[in-house]
Amino acid sequence: MDAEDIVGLVRGALAGDRRAVTRLVAVLTPTIHGRVARTLFAHRAYLGDGNFRQAVEDLVQEVFLSLFADDARVLRGWKPELSPLASFAGMIGERRVFTFLRNRKRNPRTEDLAERELAIPSVEPGPYAFASSREELQLLLDRLEETLSPLGRHVFELLFVQELSPLEVMAATELSADAVYAWSSRLRRLAQQLQVELSGSAVAARKSSEES
Predict the structure, then answer these.
(1) What is residue 124's predicted lDDT score, i.e. its pLDDT?
(2) Cβ neighbours of residue 164 under 8 Å, at least 6 residues apart?
(3) How crowded is residue 126: how many other Cβ atoms within 10 Å of its Cβ?
(4) Residue 59 and residue 97 in contact, taking contact as beta carbons nearer than 8 Å
């Protein structure tokens, strides 16, 4: 199945076509199952006495539930121009394994795993916090659109427009936690810089208007 077929299949599934949903699940199951199994096996020491095969099957089902939950919010976040659907779904599977292991309270080593390998920095307030009016916000957004690269605009949209969590952004872009945090910091610094420039321009315009 080529890229155009995949896009069409996703569109059909998002539109509520049950046959498209069934076909999409069939297409993605091997990839998700493989990524989940490999990731869980690599960290099997943290599984404790849990049943490996059953854990894999349960996690695969949870991945599909997450893809279609909340009107398929996660699936709608997939950008075909940035990553193949299989890679996108595989990343979600991998992160779901990490969340599963992090939430296991019976094994103290799981908490160590969460701290050392699964910690995802929180995203601080975004560009919206720097605008004092609707007009300023629109000017700021326009300047950000002009300044950012395609990837930067995509990350900006995910973090500050769709307000996805860092974990969801990682799944949607295949960026690491460090990269998501770096982009968040970079976008906030850029927003601050542009806000200062816009404020200075506004002050200069008012002075010019008063003098004339």
Answers:
(1) 43
(2) 77, 158, 172
(3) 16
(4) yes
Q: What type of residue sits at position 147?
A: T
Whole-number CA gyration radius for the chain = 21
Tokens of 70: 């909340």
For residue 185, give every residue at least 6 positions away whose Cβ sits within 8 Å of its Cβ, in sequence order, or none.
124
pLDDT along the chain (212 residues), means of 10: 87 91 91 88 73 88 88 88 86 86 58 41 44 61 82 82 67 75 83 75 54 58
Domain residue limits, the chain: 3-117, 127-211
- Whole-angstrom CA distances from 61 to 55, 179, 182 are 10, 28, 32
Q: What is the DSSP string of 54-117?
A: HHHHHHHHHHHHHHHHHHHHHHHT--TTTS-HHHHHHHHHHHHHHHHHHT--S-HHHHHHHHHH
Q: Does domain 127-211 have CATH number 1.10.10?
A: yes
CA dist., res. 52 & res. 108, Å (int): 18
The number of helix segments (H) and strand segments (E) in the chain equals 9, 0
